[in-house]
Amino acid sequence: MYSFSDKKILRSLCYLNGKWEGEPETEVINPATMEVIAKVPSMGAKETDLAIHYAQKALAQWSGLTAKQRSCYLKKWYNLIVEHKEDLALLMTLEQGKPLAESRGEIDYAASFVEFYAEEAKRVTGETIPSPHADARVIVIKQPIGVVAAITPWNFPSAMITRKLCPALAVGCTIVCKPAPDTPLSAFALAELADRAGIPQGVINVITGDAKQIGEALTRSPIVRALTFTGSTAVGKLLLKQSADTVKKVSLELGGNASFIIFDDADIDKAVEGAIASKFRNAGQTCVCANRVYVHDAVYDKFVEKFTQKISQMTVGNGLQSNTIIGPLINKAAFEKVERHVKEAVAKGATIHFGGGGSDSEKGYFYKPTILTNVSKDMPFSYEETFGPVAPITRFHTEEEVISLANDTPYGLASYFYARDVGRIMRVAEQLENGIVGVNSGIISSETVPFGGIKESGLGREGSHHGIEEFVEMKYIYLGGLS
Q: CA-CA distance, 300 to 372, in Å (whole number)?
């Protein structure tokens, strides 16, 4: 049923200046079967400098197009992504592991950014400011910042590319993109479709290889004027430091430690649905997934019972199987981290209420959906992202107590809570220290909203009209001598 209608979409070479370059060396592993599905080039600083050169060479032509012309290119790209949705979803499931239904959803999500910024390209406006002098006028314009470096993650290998590239492309920037080593094929497929859409050579460049060499080349280059990164806080801090010498504009979407709070006046059935959507999507491998679940003592037992009942019906398996709800973790290191978190929590007094451990029937990096109770703040979930299908549940008694617990982290990306009292909803939403707060919903992402965190969860915003501001420079022009 699922076969590639066009084998050219299976590119496994780097895309530089409109050509496919490099020698396949590094293996790409299907995390569900442990099989090698492709090999991709392992490039370094020399090739990265070349990619930067190509992007700079293409900048004048691309930025010189009208906004409508760039919009038309993006619309063509969008149409091709939609046309190849099944191919792209299958490719994603093979290299990333998520269930095919989720992969299809991500392709829709990825395409939504292309469509949105194709439209937004024509809405990048400036302003006229009243002049202090009668013979002068003051205007403000926005111009493309220049060459942009984009470093993207493996957990959403298509959507994070379009969310970063499309606002930059819309305003006239050119790109050097480094996808995650676990999931490069989705990036190559999108580059192939961009090429078919007619986007000129050098505007988009995709390179794989040594992360240290590529990262250092991108950050040290004075040609690269902006860097956008999604990944760990530790790597984000390093890139920020490395970008300081060339004073780049840096936008970072980093680690999270999302709290999920159920108050005593919540609709429990809806809270269960929201917790499952937040916690177990992509096997818990999302930066905004619930990492800590806090339930009011009055509804704790009821929530745990209903939550357990729903989770017990989840099927773990290969993402290509139609009944799969939980796919594999991305690699061995991810599996070992989840395993370590659970073992450390149990050693400190937590109880495995449901699940625990790897799958008994699958040979890939599978971990069973797990519920832990008797969880306390000295366990690893309080200070580290688990990035796996584990829901640690803690009792709380007062609003003040749970807000303190939720904010007791250096991270501030996302949080969720369920309540019905309007006063409480406004109080809690304003007091939670996060860039994103989901109220009575476990799904918070859309191309139309500003996505990003505070504290050590990042800088800047992606998505919405705000996302385009990361890739423009504001220029004030004083027009004198007009009398």
A: 13
Q: Is the pLDDT of residue 417 over 60?
A: yes
E strand or H helix that includes residue 120: helix 100-120
Q: Does residue 84 contact residue 201 with C-beta atoms inside 8 Å?
A: no
Token pair 């993650």 in the structure block, residue: 153
Q: Which residues of 334-361 are buried (b: 16+ CB within 10 A; e: fewer)?
A: bbebbbebbeebeeeebebbbbbebeee
- Helix H or strand E encompassing 391: strand 390-396
Give tens-digit pLDDT for 246-277.
Answer: 999 999 999 999 999 999 999 999 999 999 99
Does the global pTM surpass 0.85? yes
Residue 328 near residue 97, CB atoms below 8 Å: yes
CB 158 within 8 A of CB 89: no
Note the residue count of the chain.
Answer: 483
Closest CA to 292 of 267, 256, 257, 341: 257
Give the active site residue among 287, 399, 447, 469.
287
Determine the pLDDT at residue 5.
Answer: 47
Instruction: List the catalytic residue out of 95, 102, 192, 253.
Output: 253
Instruction: Decide if pLDDT at 4 tops 60.
Output: no
Q: Which of 324, 323, 335 is nearest to 34 (CA)?
A: 335
Q: Identify the bridge partners of residue 50 per DSSP, sorted by sequence position.
A: none
The predicted structure's pLDDT at residue 7: 47
- Amino acid identity of 237? K
Say how far apart CA 6 and CA 434 lie, in whole Å: 43
Asked whether residue 184 carries a pLDDT value surpassing 60, the answer given is yes
Determine the Cα–Cα distance for residues 202 and 173; give it in Å rounded to an integer: 11
Instruction: Identify the CA nearest to 364 among candidates 102, 97, 28.
Output: 97
Q: Is 86 a catalytic residue?
A: no
- Asked if residue 26 lies in contact with residue 181, where contact means CB atoms within 8 angstroms, the answer is yes
What is d(CA 425, CA 7) in angstroms, rounded to the nearest whole number?
51
Helix (H, G, I), strand (E, B) or coil at 81: helix
Q: Are the C-beta atoms of 240 and 160 separated by less than 8 Å?
A: no
**3-state SS of 141-200?**
EEEECCEEEEECCCCCCCHHHHHHHHHHHHHCCEEEEECCCCCHHHHHHHHHHHHHCCCC
Which strands make up the sheet holding 14-16, listed edge to edge? 19-21, 14-16, 204-206, 174-178, 147-151, 224-230, 249-253, 458-459
H helices of 312-413, where?
332-347, 399-407
Q: Judge whether 287 counts as a catalytic residue.
A: yes
